[in-house]
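queue> pop job 88
queue> type: inverse folding (structure -> sequence)
queue> payload:
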């Protein structure tokens, strides 16, 4: 049974895992092969199992046969759902809202659900429905209301992408700039930076930028979102894949990683100090279960599973299944 979720509430302490490396110890490197790991607790919180939304005793049928919970809202959950074929390819995709009564309302169709961004307070979902267009339309849904129609939209040149949503503002990057769009007033602020940008954490004032296109020798930088000239970390070999919710750590991968997914994932403090490295055949996802525990979607040599790691202490959070070819 496949079980996936984008957020979870279980504490790492409940799993009995160590929270810190000994002082002065080198950052550990751990090869993850699910068939060699012990089975720990399930990933807690709402999840999608074989196309069914599960939250405790609540079960709600969804379109598609696979999916993931994108996040919570004050009136329910935003869920991505899609069909998966025999070789694991995603076919189609939509985003739905499951309210507290179990009603399902479709917010967007024919999208990559995991490319859309839910605001920090859960009130707005923002994304680009057709990112292949040079002049893409950034669309906003007010997910607290029961009306599934878009509550705002605007076209931007340069293949726009949404990095973060804070209140009624969306942080958007294009090929030439990164800027705030206040969608309540339909106002665009002057660019924060004209450099290529990556993940952001608004609450903790974090943004990744590149000195220039990494395929042309550019390096990655972690900077202050409000003052992008202030550099906290720089690397010409790795880039940020995600910041932790508390802003203390980040997941980094190879700077030119593309395609099926990296074979190595590193956990660092946001000042760059290496805390742990995990390796396997390839990873196709990662997220935080708590500020200390990372959930990794691991595809090993023989099996795949979602693996919970706190530094070098790792355990399966789902049952291992036979790995599929990428």
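queue> result:
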């Amino acid at each position: 049974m496949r079980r996936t979720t984008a957020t979870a509430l279980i504490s790492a302490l409940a799993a009995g895992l160590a929270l810190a490396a000994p002082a002065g110890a080198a950052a550990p490197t751990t090869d993850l092969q699910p068939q060699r790991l012990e089975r720990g607790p399930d990933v807690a919180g709402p999840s999608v199992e074989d196309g069914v939304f599960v939250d405790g005793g609540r079960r709600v049928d969804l379109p598609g046969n696979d999916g993931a919970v994108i996040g919570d809202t004050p009136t329910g959950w935003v869920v991505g759902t899609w069909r998966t074929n025999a070789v694991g390819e995603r076919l189609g995709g939509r985003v739905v809202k499951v309210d507290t009564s179990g009603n399902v309302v479709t917010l967007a169709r024919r999208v990559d659900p995991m490319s859309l961004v839910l605001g920090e307070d859960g009130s707005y979902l923002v994304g680009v429905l057709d990112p292949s267009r040079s002049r893409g339309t950034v669309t906003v849904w007010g997910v607290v209301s029961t009306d599934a129609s878009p509550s705002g939209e605007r076209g931007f040149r340069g293949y726009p992408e949404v990095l973060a949503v804070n209140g009624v503002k969306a942080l958007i990057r294009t090929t030439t700039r990164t800027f705030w769009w206040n969608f309540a007033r339909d106002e665009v602020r002057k660019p924060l930076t004209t450099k290529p940008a990556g993940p952001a954490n608004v609450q903790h004032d974090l943004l990744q930028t590149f000195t220039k296109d990494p395929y042309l020798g550019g390096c990655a930088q972690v900077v202050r979102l409000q003052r992008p000239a202030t550099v906290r970390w720089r690397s010409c070999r790795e880039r940020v894949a995600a910041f932790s919710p508390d802003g203390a750590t980040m997941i980094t991968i190879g700077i030119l990683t593309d395609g099926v997914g990296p074979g190595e994932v590193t956990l660092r403090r946001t000042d760059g100090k290496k805390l742990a490295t995990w390796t396997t055949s390839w990873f196709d996802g990662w997220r935080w279960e708590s500020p200390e525990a990372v959930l990794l979607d691991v595809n090993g040599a023989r099996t795949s599973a979602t693996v919970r790691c706190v530094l070098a202490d790792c355990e399966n959070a789902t049952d291992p299944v036979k790995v599929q070819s990428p």
